[in-house]
Amino acid sequence: MNDSEAAFSQPGQAVDCQLLLEQLPYGICVVDNDLMVKVWNPQLAEWTGWSSESVIGQSLTNLFPSLHHRGTLQRLESVLSTGVPALFSAAMHQQLLPIPHTAAINSRGMVQEVRAIRISTEPRQMLIMVSDITLTTTQKEQLRQERKNLLEAQTSLQASIEELGRKNARLQQEIDERQEAEIAMRQQTAALIHAKVRESEHTKRLEQLVCDLTKARQAAEVAARTKSEFLANMSHEIRTPMTAILGYVDLLANETFTEDERAEHIASIRRNSHVLTEIIDDILDISKIEAGKMQVESLPFSPREVVAEVVEMLQDRANVKGLHLDMRLIEPAPTRLVSDPTRIRQILINLVGNAIKFTKAGSVHVVVQWIAAHSSHGKLQIQVVDTGIGIPHTARDQLFAPFVQADTRMTREYGGTGLGLAISQRLARMLGGELSVDSDVGRGSTFTLELPCPGESIPMMPELPASSQTNRQADMQAPLTDTKILVVDDTPDNRKLLSFHLKKAGADVDLAENGQEALEKIQAARSSQPFDIILMDMQMPVLDGYDATQQLRRIGDLTPVIAVTAHAMAGDRDKCLSVGCNDYITKPAPREKLLAIVVQWLQSSVALTGQ
User: Fold this and answer.
1) Cβ distance 598 to 589 under 8 Å?
2) Cβ contacts of residue 84 below 8 Å, gap of 6+?
3) Which residues have CB under 8 Å from 458's CB, separation 6+?
């Protein structure tokens, strides 16, 4: 007879005990005084995964080492010695845990209860019974939940009863209010008679409102037609210089010309390119202003120099038409003021350019004076006086509106976007000033720009700077000698053009097709001769200019980076500067402007490094 049978054997009961062990829904384990396993029934084997053959004869402490550390061993020995049963909770696959609760969930998700009972004193043996109480626990939880639901339902019923009482009270209140309403209705009937008298007055006002709405609709239709005409005009204005550019380019590519003829064709391409650029700039400027993205600065500047630059810039255009263009200064006036010289220059270019365009013969004068009782507090007044065709009184109201010219005949005859004066007026107001006009048909026009500008009471020299343009051209012949520049652009033609201008100015130029190649060349050049300036396109494959510039700044490279990009909408400049670019120039970049900005940052870099 084996140990399992001996443990429960009584005469005539061995077979029954073995059958009982196999059929019981409990896990049964019998251990002796040394906690050696004598019985391990099939149910316990199923739950633990340990067969009776592998467990019988082993110490319970070997199967559950945690008995040494949890105080459970002492409790089991107490059961053997005293005969007082003990109740445990455990996950039988892991350890026998003595926790104060009577149930625990084992690793199979089962809730078990473990009991230890002494079954004999000589020899001392103990039965450990593991019960599955999952269903009982679940039922208790369901009962608890049902009680909770019942309490909630009782609370809800009580609330419903209270709400019904409140509704009854409100119903009685509504009955009382209806009675009061009947009384008020009789009073309102009398008021209605009075209201009918006033109805005729409302009808008249409504008719006036309809009239106003009709006028507003008509104004909107006019505005829509105006914008449609503007778009048609823009199509014409953009296609006209583009046609000339493409035509002359085809001629230069496919025909043989003399040097003089080639020079004329190139001059035509350059002239039409400038016209196209001005049109695009006007469209971008008006979009920035209407989007509220145009910003103005407050910088010290010389009004004499700003006006002289504009006159000098447009002198050739006036000479072509045989017009006399000059600047006249009325003293005394401050030599330096505080405002935004860039926007003032833009306004004057528009005004003087329009004066030259609409003047067939005669002159254009730019008159500068300071209007103030005290020279440090007053207004800068700049007048552009021409002897042109003049402006009819009927056109003045719309003169500063965007997309509008005096009439369509002028658009056809003189061209233009109809945006220049609108931009100038809005810029003047952003600077705190005003732009006005005095004109009659046939006697010319006077446009007056007045700007409040803090200044100094120092007389302004009336003489124009002698040969300033010649000097600037001389300075720009070779200003980049001993300068190493990296040009980064994914377009071969752009790389070639920028490289040509920079090399003509004396620079040593290296090229990269994308930001990744640029970073590699910058890294390689550090050990020999690092780059002095980087011209960075922003929209490129592999690695664009934004990420490339950010990576440069993260590794501590402070080489000046100038963004050269076709992105010219509101916010693009700030986006480039925010990633670490030092400056920003839009494509197409004129040679003079490109060289000027490169020289400026070279000088700034030298000033900072002392080299």
Assistant:
1) no
2) 78
3) 334, 335, 336
Task: Count Cβ atoms below 10 Å from residue 168 Cβ, excluding itself.
Answer: 10
Inter-residue contact 257 to 251 (CB < 8 Å): yes
Distance in angstroms (rounded) separating the CA atoms of residues 545 and 543:
7
**CA distance linking residue 536 with residue 570, whole number of Å:** 19
Instruction: Identify any residues that bridge with 564 across adjacent strands, giving them in sequence order.
Output: 585
Measured from the Cβ of residue 316, the count of other Cβ atoms closer than 10 Å reads 9
Q: How far apart are CA 112 and CA 358, in angstroms?
A: 102
122 three-class SS? coil
Q: Looking at the whole model, is its pTM more than 0.85?
A: no
3-class secondary-structure state, position 389: coil
Which range (31-40, 321-330, 473-482) has the least confidence?
473-482
**495-520 tens-digit pLDDT:** 888 888 899 989 999 999 999 999 99
Is-contact 338 300, C-beta < 8 A?
Answer: yes
Q: What is the pLDDT of residues 542-561, one digit of tens each?
A: 999 999 999 999 999 999 99
Of 2, 15, 95, 94, nearest to 53 by C-alpha is: 2
- Please give the sequence-ordered ranges of beta strands (E in DSSP) within 140-260, or none if there are none: none
CA distance 262 to 258: 6
Gap between the Cα atoms of 433 and 446, Å rounded: 17
Maximum CA extent, the chain: 143
**Whole-number Å distance between alpha carbons of 356 and 367:** 15
Residues in the chain: 611
* C-alpha to C-alpha distance for 523 and 551, rounded to whole angstroms: 12
